[in-house]
Specification:
CATH class: Mainly Beta
Structural class: alpha/beta
Helix content: 10-25%
Radius of gyration: 19 Å
Number of helices: 1
CATH topology: UDP N-Acetylglucosamine Acyltransferase, domain 1
Order of helices and strands: HEEEEEEEEEEEEEEEEEEEEEE
Shape: globular
CATH architecture: 3 Solenoid
CATH superfamily: Hexapeptide repeat proteins
Largest sheet: 8 strands, mixed
Amino acid sequence: MNKFSIFCMKVCRRIINKVRGWYRKTSFLSGVKSYGENVHLLGPVYLWNRNVILGADINVYPNVTFWGSGNIEIGNNCEIGFNTVLYASQSIKIMDHVSIAADCYIIDSNHGIAKDKEIQSQESVCKGPVLIEEDVWLGAGVKVLSGVHIGKGAVIGAQALVNSDIPEYAIAVGVPARVVGYRK
């Protein structure tokens, strides 16, 4: 292959990638309820929920999934990391300036576990909506369960399981997550 052919192939690849990105963003944003300016999809994103509201200046990394039939609301200046799943049967609200690292799972419901019924045939159980306040950082692999309220400025360490409320500016780690300190 000569240099001109190689150049043409590189240009074609760039054009194809730009068109793919434009199509991905256009089809995703046409499926959400509303969105602000500068929503950046940095790879494929899956939308299986039509009740999503996105603020402005958001970065959504590859393989993020919005799922369920409840409301998912994300504030301004947020980042949602690779392979994160947000599942809402009722409501998930994420306020401004929140950073969510890769492989997180945020869910506002769970399976029923009554012994007189098969697990697969039981209705979901929702303890309440999930609320993540401003300036929160969720480390990689954090799981946030139904009914949890994470206070302003909190930091949740990698792989933590948050099944109860976390106070403002707390640093929480572990399974289940427990407060080990406060931001200073």
